[in-house]
Design goal:
C8orf32 fold; alpha+beta; Jelly Rolls; 15% helix; 37 strands; 646 residues; 8-stranded mixed sheet; single chain; 10 helices; 3 domains; globular; Immunoglobulin-like
C-alpha cells in the first residue's frame, strides 16, 4: 500500500545497529557447538536452532513507505533426520506486480574436519524462486555440504511495500531453540496492535523509547531462551493456534499534521469494504450470464430448498476442487469452462447461481482448521482463508460448500469446523457459529462361525455415515470396484469371496458394503482351547493419548460413533469356558461413552460394542480423565473369549 506523506521531516532510515546489539556475529562459531553431538535439554532432537535473531523496521520517505526485515539464523544438525533443515524457504508476499524483495543472502555450512572448522559457502546458482500460492512466492536454497554434525548459518534481508503486514515472529519450531530474539522498531505514528500467543515464558519483554536520526521510535524487544520443540499432539488443530509467537496488526496511522488513517477499522467496515470489492462482493452482481444455466438446473422445481439442493449438486458434481483454500474467486466464466477451481471459485459460483434463482444468499468467511483460530479482536481479512454460502429459508440457516462431491449438501467439510464464520451481508452481517450438522458413524455387523482351526468365516456388513462416509466414497470412486475390494482386502488381510455395494452415489444415504470373508487364524488354538477376540475389526489397540501430560486442547472436529455388532457360532464340540464381562464406561457430562455387552446362548456368542464421543472439544485439563477412559476401552477390547473342548 502506498500513499503520499507530505512532511519531509518524516524522511528517515532507522539504523538498527544503533538500537540493539546482535547476540552473535556471523561466522563466529564456538567450537563447543561444532563438537556437540546431543542437544543438552532434548536428547531426541534431530537438530536445534542455536540462534534465531530478527529485526524489523520501517523506512518512511517523502512518497513511500518500505518495511525492512532482517534475519540471522544458526542451526545445528545432530542426526540424519535433521538434514531437512538444510532446505531453506523464504516466503515473499506478492499482489499483482508488487512483490517483496529478498537481498543480502549469506549462507554457510560449517563442519569439523580433523579438529578444524571448514566453511562451505552457498553457491548463488543454488537459489531459485517458485510460486507458493496466490499471495506468496518462495525464495528457496539448499545449504551446501550438510551432514550430521554440521552447523548451518544464513542471513538475509526482505524489503517490502506491504508495510501494513508487519512481520510476526515465531519463537518456537518443531526442533528446540536455544535463543530466539526479535526487535520491532516502530515509529510513534504507526500504531500496531501486538498480541502474544503460546505457552512459553518470555525472558525479555520490553519497549524502549528511542530517538533515531531525530525520529521517535518505539523499540519492542523480546527474547525467549531454551524453547522446547513444538510437538504435535493427537486431535489438535493447526500448530499456528498454539505455537509461541508475537503477532502484529496495524490499527491506524497518525502522521503529524494529517488526519488519523484507520487501517484495521472494524468488522463492520471490513464487511462494507468486501461488499464493494470488485473481486468479491460485486462478483455475484456481475454474474448475470448464470441465469440461463441456473434456470436449466432448477427446471421443474418449485420449492426453494429443492432449487438449492439442485444447484449444489450441479456445482459439486461438475466443478472439481483443486485443493486450494481461498475466498477470493477468479473469473466465473473461466471456472465453468475449466470445470476446476479453488474453494473461492466454487462456492462463489454456487452463491451466484443461488442468487440467480432469486433465493437470498450470503457469503461466510472462515478460517479452516489447518489455518488457525479467528481472533475477534482483530478485524483483518488475512485471518480468513475460506468461504462458504449461507442460505436463509424461513427461520433456518443452511451453510453450503460444494468442494466435496461426496458429501450431502447439508454437511460442511470437516476442515470448516473451526469455531465461527463471518457473514458478509447487507442485512445479516455478523458472526455465525460453525457447528457440525452430522457425526461420523460406522456400523459393522458380523454374522460368522468359528472353525476348529481358529479361522472365522461369514459375512461382514459395513455402513458408513456422515463424515465417515466421505473418505470411503472417495476411495471407491477414485478407482473401480475391483481395485477398491483389492485394497480393502490387503488392509484387513482377509480373503473375500463376494462383495456387494449399495448407495455408492447417493450422498444422503449410508455407504454400504458387505463382504463374505474368511479370516485365517483369527482365534489362537492352544491344545484343547481356542482364544478368541470377537472384535475382528474396529478395535482400538492403542491409546492415542500416550503422554501423561497434555499442553493443548483436544479437538475432534465432530462427534463420532463406532458400532460393532457380531454373532459368532462356536465350533461343534466346544463350549464357552471364559467370557468377558459386560461393561459400560462414561465420561463426565456425557462427553463420551463406551458400551461392551456380551452374552452367549447355546452355540452362539453375541457382542455389541459401541464407542461414542459426543464432546467435540476437550480442555487439556481433562486430559487425564480422557486418557484413562481410553486406557479402559483398550483393555476391555483386548479381552478374549476362551473356548474349550467338551
Amino acid at each position: 500500500m502506498r500513499f503520499c506523506v507530505l512532511l519531509l521531516i518524516l524522511v528517515f532510515f532507522v539504523q538498527t545497529a544503533q538500537a540493539q546489539k546482535p547476540p552473535v556475529k556471523y561466522g563466529d562459531i564456538p567450537m563447543d557447538d561444532l563438537k556437540m553431538t546431543v542437544y543438552p535439554t532434548d536428547s531426541s532432537a534431530a537438530a536445534a536452532v542455536l540462534v534465531d535473531y530478527g529485526t524489523a523496521y520501517l523506512n518512511v520517505m517523502s512518497s513511500s513507505i518500505n518495511m525492512v526485515f532482517e534475519r540471522h539464523t544458526r542451526i545445528k544438525i545432530l542426526r540424519k533426520d535433521g538434514l531437512r533443515w538444510g532446505d531453506v524457504a523464504i516466503l515473499l508476499r506478492q499482489a499483482g506486480s508488487t512483490e517483496e524483495r529478498v537481498s543480502s543472502i549469506k549462507a554457510s555450512t560449517y563442519n569439523l574436519v580433523d579438529g578444524k572448522m571448514v566453511e562451505s559457502k552457498l553457491d548463488k546458482k543454488g537459489m531459485f524462486k517458485e510460486k507458493f500460492n496466490r499471495s506468496f512466492n518462495q525464495q528457496k536454497f539448499t545449504m551446501p555440504d550438510v551432514k550430521e554434525g554440521s552447523i548451518l548459518e544464513y542471513s538475509y534481508t526482505v524489503t517490502s511495500e506491504f508495510w501494513t503486514n508487519f512481520p510476526n515472529w515465531q519463537f518456537q519450531r518443531t526442533i528446540p531453540t536455544r535463543w530466539s530474539e526479535y526487535w520491532a522498531m516502530i515509529p510513534d505514528f504507526f500504531h500496531y496492535e501486538r498480541y502474544m500467543q503460546g505457552y512459553l515464558s518470555v525472558s525479555t519483554n520490553e519497549s524502549k523509547d528511542l530517538n533515531v536520526n531525530g525520529v521517535q521510535v518505539k523499540g519492542h524487544h523480546w527474547i525467549v531462551k531454551d524453547a522446547p520443540a513444538f510437538r504435535e499432539e493427537p486431535y489438535m488443530t493447526s500448530e499456528d493456534n498454539y505455537i509461541s509467537r508475537i503477532n502484529f496488526a496495524l490499527s491506524y496511522v497518525a502522521f503529524p499534521g494529517q488526519p488519523t488513517r484507520e487501517i484495521m477499522g472494524s468488522w463492520s467496515k471490513l464487511n462494507d469494504d468486501l461488499l464493494k470489492d470488485e473481486d468479491f462482493g460485486r462478483v455475484i452482481d456481475r454474474s448475470g450470464f448464470l441465469k440461463e444455466i441456473t434456470a436449466q438446473v432448477t427446471a421443474g422445481l418449485t420449492e426453494p430448498i429443492q432449487k438449492v439442493e439442485a444447484i449444489h449438486r450441479y456445482v459439486s458434481q461438475n466443478i472439481e476442487w483443486d485443493g486450494t483454500e481461498d475466498f477470493y474467486p477468479g473469473d466465473l466464466k473461466k471456472i465453468l469452462e475449466k470445470k476446476k477451481g479453488t474453494s473461492g471459485d466454487i462456492n462463489v459460483l454456487m452463491a451466484s447461481m443461488i442468487d440467480k434463482a432469486n433465493i437470498p444468499v450470503d457469503m461466510v468467511l472462515l478460517s479452516t482448521r489447518s489455518h488457525g483460530f479467528i481472533r475477534p479482536a482483530y478485524p483483518m481479512t488475512r485471518q480468513f482463508n475460506y468461504v462458504v454460502c449461507a442460505v436463509r429459508l424461513a427461520d433456518k440457516v443452511i451453510l453450503l460448500d460444494a468442494t466435496e462431491k461426496y458429501l450431502p449438501y447439508t454437511i460442511l467439510p470437516d476442515r470448516c469446523l473451526n469455531g465461527q464464520g463471518l457473514v458478509i451481508s447487507k442485512t445479516n452481517h455478523g458472526w455465525l457459529n460453525i457447528e457440525p450438522k452430522a457425526k461420523g458413524r460406522n456400523v459393522i455387523n458380523v454374522d460368522a462361525r468359528l472353525t476348529a482351526d481358529g479361522s472365522i468365516e461369514g459375512k461382514v456388513n459395513f455402513s458408513n455415515e456422515g463424515y465417515h462416509a466421505l473418505p470411503v466414497r472417495k476411495r471407491y470412486h477414485a478407482r473401480d470396484q475391483e481395485a477398491f475390494v483389492k485394497e480393502f482386502q490387503s488392509e484387513k488381510q482377509w480373503t473375500l469371496a463376494n462383495s456387494e455395494f449399495n448407495n455408492v452415489s447417493e450422498n444422503d444415504k449410508h455407504f454400504v458394503h458387505a463382504h463374505e470373508v474368511t479370516i485365517a487364524e483369527h482365534g489362537e488354538v492352544m491344545g484343547d482351547a481356542i482364544y478368541l477376540n470377537p472384535l475382528i475389526t474396529s478395535r482400538i489397540k492403542q491409546n492415542p493419548f500416550k503422554s501423561e501430560t497434555r499442553v493443548y486442547p483436544i479437538d475432534y472436529g465432530a462427534p463420532s460413533e463406532e458400532v460393532f455388532m457380531c454373532k459368532i457360532q462356536i465350533p461343534d464340540g466346544y463350549k464357552v469356558d471364559e467370557l468377558p464381562k459386560s461393561k459400560v464406561m462414561t465420561l463426565p457430562q456425557n462427553g463420551g461413552r463406551y458400551v461392551y455387552n456380551i452374552s452367549h446362548s447355546g452355540s452362539n456368542i453375541t457382542l455389541t460394542s459401541i464407542f461414542t464421543m459426543n464432546q467435540v472439544i476437550v480442555p487439556q485439563t481433562d486430559h487425564a480423565v480422557l486418557r484413562e477412559f481410553y486406557n479402559q476401552v483398550v483393555a476391555k477390547q483386548a479381552e478374549q473369549i476362551v473356548l474349550k473342548k467338551n
